Amino acid sequence: MTKWDLFFKEKITKIFTEKKTILDIGGGLRIDLKRNNRFDPDRAWIIPYLKNVDYKIMDYVAKYNPDIVGDIHKMPFADVSFDAIICAAVLEHVENPIQAAIEIKRVLKPGGYAFVYVPFLYYYHIEEGNYGDYWRFTKDAIRFMFKGFQTIEIEPLRGAVETWIKLSPLCKYDIFLKLARLVDKLTGKSKSNQVSGYNIFLIK
């Protein structure tokens, strides 16, 4: 398991074991096909945790059958409503990600957790008629957007060479990704700022 996958698993487990009211903006965990537009079987390990928490999905697109239809720019919740928020692969699709970050902080309780994923070097991806693809994020942008949080942990996904492979037709073959990861490690490119994206863990 890669270090970014371990970071994801550690932080999501922390959220589901230490917090009770959890809002998944955009349904980015991909663990409930009935309330989402996609399902990720690799994340099925999260499902047993659901029985112990109040887990809600909010999405702007009603046809995905979220629990709440809402806009991240102005969420339909009172201040300090949730113990934890998950916002994975959403902020590149919103018109004003800084306002979205302000809203995440607003509805999160003091001491609450947030897990966010944003892309940096990543291919253009939209869903026609539902959402566009507006932004990419550096570490500097992340720190600026979430500067009001007491804790910001940032874990990059992939090094420079593996990111290049991920953007190429070779990404279909796992062997090339593994070889690129080894090259990144041997050449120090795993510490480059040319990465696919970032997993972020925040404490308000």
What would you say about this model in short?
This protein is α/β, with parallel strands linked by helices and 204 residues long.
Structural notes for this entry:
Strand 4, helix 2 and strand 5 (108-119) form a beta-alpha-beta unit. The mean pLDDT is 95. 27% of the residues lie in helices and 23% in strands. The chain starts with a helix and ends with a strand. The protein has helices spanning 3-18, 97-107, 139-145, 160-166, 174-187, and strands at 21-25, 54-59, 68-69, 82-88, 108-119, 151-157, 197-203. The protein is globular and about 50 Å long. Helix 4 runs antiparallel to helix 5 (174-187). By secondary structure, it is of the alpha/beta class.
Q: Which secondary structure elements does this structure contain, and how are they paired or packed?
A:
Elements: H1 3-18, E1 21-25, E2 54-59, E3 68-69, E4 82-88, H2 97-107, E5 108-119, H3 139-145, E6 151-157, H4 160-166, H5 174-187, E7 197-203
Parallel strand pairs: 1-2, 1-4, 2-3, 4-5
Antiparallel strand pairs: 5-7, 6-7
Helix pairs in contact: 4-5
- Strands of the widest sheet, in order across it, are 3-2-1-4-5-7-6
Low-confidence stretches: none
Radius of gyration: 17 Å
Provide the β-strand percentage band.
15-25%
Total helical elements: 5
Number of domains: 1
